[in-house]
Design a protein that fits this description.
Blueprint (H helix, E strand, L loop, with lengths): L8 H6 E6 L3 E6 L6 E6 L12 H22 L3 E5 L10 E6 L21 H15 L1
Helix pairs in contact: 2-3
């Protein structure tokens, strides 16, 4: 265990930074098939939600709700999938995925369905800027 926060290398490689909220860093998953945001609490050695204090559990839920509402407003999606699974990447993180009927994985989960489809650099930058503005 470490006493400083370090972002898991896989999360770092698979995502792009959007903004730091009081508890969590918020990052965009680099898969253009799905508008997909991840929240990672910036505390060391977290694996489960229960590793957070009660106050931080509430803060994470509040941040997740804020990110969810922002992603829904940004995309106009009819459905959000929110999950903290962590079977492959153990570091505690919460996925917020905008879903649309007929998307590449509909109606199943997005995990492992298809290899990631890279964003066009301009579209990725525009989405990050727009989400950052909504979350500020």
């Amino acid at each position: 265990m470490t006493d400083t926060f370090t972002l898991d290398p896989r999360l770092d490689a698979d995502t792009a930074g959007i903004i730091d909220l009081p508890l969590s860093t918020v990052r965009l998953m680099r898969d253009a098939r799905y508008p997909w945001v991840i929240l990672i609490p910036r505390q060391p050695s977290l694996v489960e939600l229960t590793d957070l204090t009660r106050d931080d559990q509430i803060a994470l839920m509040d941040e997740t709700a804020h990110v969810s509402a922002s992603l829904k407003a940004e995309t106009g999606c009819p459905k959000l999938n929110v999950a903290a699974i962590g079977n492959i990447v153990r570091q505690l993180h919460v996925h917020v995925v905008a879903r649309f009927e007929g998307d590449a994985a509909w109606p199943g989960p997005v995990w492992g369905k298809h290899p990631p489809l890279a964003y066009d650099a301009e579209k990725e930058a525009a989405l990050i800027a727009s989400l950052r503005a909504r979350l500020s």
